[in-house]
Every structure is written in C-alpha cells, then in structure tokens.
Write a structure and sequence with these properties.
The protein is elongated and about 65 Å long. α1 packs across α3. By secondary structure, the protein is mainly alpha-helical. 57% of the residues lie in helices and 0% in strands.
Length: 146
C-alpha cells in the first residue's frame, strides 16, 4: 500500500474517531460512546480487539472514500467522505430525537408533534403566539453582536 494511501486511511480513522467523540450526547456520556465503539470493533466478542478487527473497523469507517475506485484517495474524496459521515451522524441524531414510535423512521406526525412541543415551550404565556421577548436568549453571544 502506498504511503499516501496509508496516510489517507489514518486521516479518515482520526476524523472518524474525533467525530464519534464529538457525537456523544451533551450530557457527557462519552464513556458510553467509547464502550459502544469497542463492542462494535470487537467482532468476535472476545473482550479484546485484534489488529484484524481494528483494520476491518477502519476499512468500514473509511466507507467509500475512494469514490472512483482507483486505489487512491484525493483530498476531495476524503473531504466528501468526511462530510457524508457527519451528515449521516446528524441525520441519525434527528431520527433518534423525533422518532417517538421507535421504528427508525420519521413521519410528518412525529415531526409536527415535536414542533408543537417546541412552540409550546417558547409560548411562555400560552396565548398561541410567540413574541420577541419570549424567544430563547442565545448563550455565549459574542461582544458587540446581538
């Protein structure tokens, strides 16, 4: 394997690992995410990860980065794969948040139900309208910007 391909694979592995760590819930459950990644990588469920299991997991994480199948990954191909992985994680978080019946898919009714809850939270005086004063305040606003 060429050095540039090895570097590209290492980069994707690093990007995937960093992205997975960032995808942890905001309540700080990073340890749970780490355990889930370990269990997914430990293909034979032996309690340890061999190089073969690690390598297979990295190939899976790499996905379809070599879009044209020429055995080389360009910066554009790597960037495209990273963006695809990010979009997929974001989409999964949305489905996880809105999917009330747990079927792994969203319906218009599930989305509308969530929207109604969000609107009700903003409508602090329950008059069926949201005025500017009821809008949530942004935290960590930069100085000089409103």
């Amino acid at each position: 394997m060429k050095k540039s391909t090895k570097l590209a694979i290492a980069f994707l592995a690093l990007a995937g690992t960093a992205g997975s760590a960032m995808a942890a819930d905001n309540d700080g459950r990073r340890g749970d995410m780490r355990g889930m990644r370990f269990e997914r990588t430990d293909a034979d469920k032996s309690g340890d990860i061999t190089f073969e299991e690690f390598s297979a997991a990295m190939k899976t994480r790499m996905g379809t980065a070599d879009a044209d199948g020429d055995g080389k990954m360009t910066v554009a191909e790597i960037a495209s794969e990273i963006e695809r992985m990010r979009a997929e994680r974001r989409a999964q978080r949305i489905v996880d948040r809105f999917d009330t019946d747990g079927d792994g898919m969203l319906t218009a009714a599930e989305i509308e139900s969530r929207q109604k809850k969000m609107f009700a939270l903003m409508d602090r005086n329950d008059d069926g309208k949201v005025v500017k004063e009821e809008m949530p305040q942004r935290k960590n606003v930069r100085r000089g910007r409103n």
